[in-house]
Write a structure and sequence with these properties.
globular; 187 residues; Ferritin; 9 helices
Length: 187
Amino acid sequence: MSARAAIKSIQKTMRKDRGINGDAQRIEQLGWMLFLKILDDQDEQLELMDPNYRSPIPEGLRWREWAADPEGITGTELLDFVDQRLFPGLKASVSPRSGGRARVVKSAFEDANNYMKSGQLLRQVINQLSSIDFNDLSERQHFGDIYEQILNDLQSAGNAGEFYTPRAITTFMAQRLDPKPTELLLV
């Protein structure tokens, strides 16, 4: 399944969950999940290239350790893991000796929320995301299309879809890009 088709299917699954109230929450939910999946895919590549590389994600919280098994935890157990172990663990992942990637993880999760109330639907979404290989260049080229698709699906967004980008993501992007008043950003 292509990344674009997987995202469409994920959105359909999320619409069934009673905890997600609208497209803005769906985007935020999808945002943190995509972030973790992409970071884990990158980590796998970096581990192959550098035997000394260590992921900024603490042991037990990496996507491949809790999400990649399609028959893995689900239901209340999955919701408890995400709310009580994953989010607190990622928010506390930075120590004084942490590198830049660990600070990125902490920053991305400072204001993130898990809105899903059904652990079974969350497992379905996780399984759909796990089917995407973000190290595959043919999938990676579709990121712009995926973003546009998500914005177009915001029924009430009209031409101002950027206002639905979660605050944590815009803050994170601005901090990483660190734009100067004289610079022009093209996206």
